[in-house]
């Protein structure tokens, strides 16, 4: 196997990264692609948070990511080594983390909020994809997700959005939008548009790599 082709997928909260990624992965067989998600590299807080503590703790900063481990695991995959690590459960005491086994593959996908800000990672990406959505639409998606999946109140979600999410997006993500090869606007719930774009990009990669 030659050097893996590295795809970076970035975008703000509620931009549709997860949906695009799921559709994108369907265009490859499991032995053709592997995924490293920045979400699994949050530094554990180390204590059980109350809802009030969780509200004020800012997870939307690069310093909350164990970037050394993130880089190390990417390097291991590039050197054809399998990575084994624990899934991050977002400080949910009721969740049992899964053990993730990530095997090297010809296409390596690196996904997360700060992958473009971490220049040691960004400079190695062969293809950069930026998921984009208007603020009001992204906020609505974030509220739906955090209410259903994490049990947060709309008030808490909105506080984090105004004080953590948007300032971090403007400082650590938006400045790198212009350097991306593909900027995908995702302001509707029309899945067909994202599916079509994911197929188009995947086909280009397949022709380049396989």
TrEMBL record:
Pfam families: PRK. Residues 6-188 form the Phosphoribulokinase/uridine kinase domain. The keyword Cytoplasm does not apply. GO terms for molecular function: ATP binding; kinase activity. Keywords: Kinase, Transferase. InterPro entries: P-loop_NTPase (IPR027417), PRK/URK (IPR006083). This is Uridine kinase. It comes from Mucilaginibacter hurinus. The lineage of its organism: Bacteria, Pseudomonadati, Bacteroidota, Sphingobacteriia, Sphingobacteriales.
């Amino acid at each position: 196997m030659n050097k893996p082709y590295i795809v970076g997928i970035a975008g703000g909260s509620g931009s549709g990264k997860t949906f695009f990624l799921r559709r994108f992965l369907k265009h490859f067989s499991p032995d053709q692609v592997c995924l490293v998600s920045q979400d699994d590299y949050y530094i554990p807080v180390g204590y059980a948070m109350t809802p009030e503590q969780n509200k004020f703790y800012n997870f939307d900063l690069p310093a909350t990511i164990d970037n050394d481990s993130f880089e190390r695991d990417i390097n291991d995959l590039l050197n054809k080594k399998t990575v084994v690590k624990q899934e991050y459960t977002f400080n949910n005491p009721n969740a049992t983390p899964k053990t993730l086994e990530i095997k090297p593959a010809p296409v390596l996908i690196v996904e997360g909020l700060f992958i473009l800000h971490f220049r040691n990672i960004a400079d190695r990406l062969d293809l950069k994809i930026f998921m984009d959505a208007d603020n009001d639409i992204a906020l609505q998606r974030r509220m739906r997700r955090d209410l259903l999946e994490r049990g947060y109140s709309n008030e808490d979600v909105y506080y984090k959005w105004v004080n953590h999410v948007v300032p971090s997006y403007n400082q650590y993500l938006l400045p790198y939008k212009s350097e991306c090869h593909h900027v995908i606007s995702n302001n509707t719930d029309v899945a067909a548009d994202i599916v079509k774009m994911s197929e188009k990009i995947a086909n280009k990669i397949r022709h380049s790599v396989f």
